[in-house]
């Protein structure tokens, strides 16, 4: 089974990634950067893709059996509504791409 972890360098995503990597699972990682927790693992299948880029997500998820989303965009936006809408759009893109 090939598993994609979205938000693989955050608090939860990185712990899940480490657990699955230690179990020798076939894992594909997605985050804005590789992150300090995962840098020690050689040969990681890691990509940096903005969740608002649906076409890139579709390509990334080719051949994936299971998607685990641990991502949240915590960047500062002008309003709370804008922040909520950006995260909602990202989730919708991920669902459509899956």
Sum up the structure in keywords.
98 residues, alpha/beta, four-stranded parallel β-sheet, 3 helices
What is the topology?
Elements: E1 2-6, H1 11-22, E2 26-30, E3 46-47, H2 54-60, E4 66-69, H3 80-97
Parallel strand pairs: 1-2, 1-4, 2-3
Helix pairs in contact: 2-3
Please, could you describe this protein's structure?
The protein is α/β, with parallel strands linked by helices and 98 residues long. The chain contains three helices and four strands; from the N terminus they run βαββαβα. The chain has helices at residues 11-22, 54-60, 80-97, and strands spanning 2-6, 26-30, 46-47, 66-69. A four-stranded parallel sheet has the order 3-2-1-4, covered by helices on one side. Helix 2 packs across helix 3. The longest helix is centred in the last third of the chain and has 18 residues, at 80-97. It is globular and about 40 Å long. The two termini are 15 Å apart. The model has no long low-confidence stretch (mean pLDDT 91).
Summary of the model, kept short:
This protein is α/β, with parallel strands linked by helices and 98 residues long. The protein has three helices and four strands. The longest helix has 18 residues, at 80-97.
